[in-house]
Design goal:
It is built from twelve helices and eight strands. It is an alpha/beta fold and 263 residues long. The relative contact order is 0.16.
């Protein structure tokens, strides 16, 4: 679906079903350098099981027009504007990695519309390796290659795939090589407002972690969960890019929580 957000065209994946804003809406926010394709299995399940799906490409990413935004705060405001444009009233918000920080910024502006918030492979703050930023500035594809080496678990690095015929590392490379990775990474590095945003939260929370996450290690996710009093799931034998490395187990951890908190 195409929306007009701040006078620019924005692409929003809907999981293969026509978007209906009268249904509870599950919102999927991608992380640095990624897009809606990162959530393919998860979005499709919700779209065919009584929910509407809202999985946008952030401005300047893949199918969305506009200039890439250079701060998490601006991305959070944009997400709220996109949801307002679609007339969404009942929101289950999910963010992966820096996408959770964007979701967190949006959450403080959604008030009673926000029903749940889920962090996937994330933390209260996410330091970014400066060498990675330098490499991404020289070439998104070079930066992507380094992230993909860090971002997947040991089995996937050996060629194992949870989805026969699909290689998650290749999928990640295809998406990230054409997106503004360096801008996203710098926005993530510079974000310092999570404490204030967390203090404003007033909804059930869920934290999903990966046992082999080298980019946002489990201990930081556990600290986030403890602060929030959140539900916690850990997915073993997987790295940072959980939704494409362990798509079914990630879906199970998301849907169990959302179903529990759907009126």
């Amino acid at each position: 679906m195409i929306l007009m957000v701040n006078n620019e065209k924005a692409f929003v994946a809907t999981g293969g079903q026509v978007f209906d804003n009268s249904k509870p809406t599950v919102v999927f926010v991608h992380g640095s350098g990624l897009d809606h394709r990162f959530w393919t299995l998860q979005t499709r399940w919700f779209a065919f099981h009584g929910y509407s799906v809202f999985a946008p490409d952030l401005p300047g990413h893949s199918l969305s027009a506009g200039v890439p935004l250079d701060s998490i705060e601006a991305m959070g405001k944009w997400l709220v504007a996109a949801l307002d444009s679609a007339g969404v009233d009942s929101i289950h918000l999910i963010g992966h990695s820096s996408g959770f920080l964007i979701a967190l910024e949006a959450a403080s502006r959604l008030d009673s519309r926000l029903k749940t918030l889920t962090a996937v492979a994330s933390a209260e703050s996410i330091p970014v390796n400066e060498d990675l930023i330098v490499m991404a500035e020289s070439s998104a594809s070079v930066g992507a290659d380094l992230m993909l080496k860090w971002g997947f678990g040991s089995k996937t690095q050996l060629g194992v795939s949870a989805v026969p015929g699909m290689q998650p590392i290749a999928i990640g490379r295809q998406i990230m090589s054409d997106n503004p990775l360096a801008i996203d990474l710098k926005a993530c590095r510079n974000y310092a407002a999570s404490n204030a945003a967390l203090n404003k939260l007033n909804c059930p929370t869920n934290v999903i972690l990966a046992s082999e996450d080298k980019m946002t290690p489990c201990r930081f996710g556990l600290e986030l969960a403890a602060r929030l009093g959140a539900n916690v799931s850990q997915i073993d034998d997987s790295g940072h890019f959980l939704p494409i490395e362990s798509p079914k187990r990630t879906l199970d951890a998301i849907k169990a929580f959302i179903i529990e908190h759907t009126n």
